[in-house]
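new request in #modeling-help
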Amino acid sequence: MSEVRGVVVAHGDLAAALVATVERISGLGGALRAVSNEGLGPDRLREVLREAMGSDPSILFVDLASGSCGIAGLGLSQERGEVVVLTGTNVPMLLDFVFHRDLPLEELTARLRDKARAGIRAHGCAPDPPEGS
Amino acid sequence: MSLELVRVDERLLHGQVLVAWGARLGIRDYIVVDDRLAESRWEQELYGSALAGDAAAEFLTVEAAVRRLPELDVAGRPAALLTRDTGTMRRLAERGALGGRRVTIGGLHDAPGRRKVLDYVYLGDEERRDLAEIARHGARVSARDLPTAPEVGLEQLLST
C-alpha cells in the first residue's frame, strides 16, 4: 500500500514555515509538501493542490477552515475518494504524520486529530477539563 | 439587514471577507449572487461551512437578488453582497441595483487573459468593460482588499 501524501496548504508563508519546522525537528525531508494560497484564485489553487496530491491517498492540512484553503480542500474531497481535510493544523499533528504515513488513511486521520488536540495545553490557569467533558 | 459591503471577490466567503471586513463592519448576513451557485446545494454547503457563530449566507440568482435588494436596504443586521466575477456585478448594475453604492474589487487573481493591476487585482479586457459599465450605472467602483488598505480608484484600475 502506498504511503499517504501530506500537503500543507495555508495563507502567506505559513505552509512553508510549518514544513521546514517539521523537517528540522524530525530529520525527515520530503514527507510534506507546502502550498500557499498567495495570489491564487480558487480554480488555480485547486489545480495546484491536485498536482501536489497526485492520485495517492492524501491528507490536506489546512490552517483555517473558514478560508479559501479550507474551501478548496473541501471541494477536492468531493471530487474523489481518499482525500481528507484536516483543519487547525499544528506542529504536533504534522510531526506525527511524518512518522506514520504508512497507516490506513482513516486510522491515520483519527490519530492526527487526537495528536493535534493533545498538543494544545494551557498552563498557568485552571487545569484542563477531563477528556469528553 | 443593511447592505454595508458590495464586493467582487472570486473566493467569495473566505478569511479576508469573514474576518477582516466582517469583524470591522459587524456583518452577520452574506448575500452571494451567482446563478450557478444558486442552483448547487453542495457548493452552498461548502461555502456555508466557512461561516461561524450566527452568521448566515443566502445564495441568489441575479434575478432573485434584484428582487431582494430593496428589502436588504432597511436598517438591521449589517449585510454584505458578494459576487465572484465582474460580469455578475455588471448585470446587477444594469438592473439598477447598484446606483449610489460603493462596489469594491477585493480579489481577482492571475489567470489567462488577465493583466496585473494590483497584487490582488488582475483584469482582462471584458472585466475592464464591466467595471466601466458598473460605474456608468451610478456605482462608485474601487479596489481594496482589506479595510486597512488604501482604496484604489476606478481610473487607476482602468489605466494600468
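bot summary: Residues 5-118 of chain A form a domain with the Rossmann fold fold (CATH 3.40.50.510).
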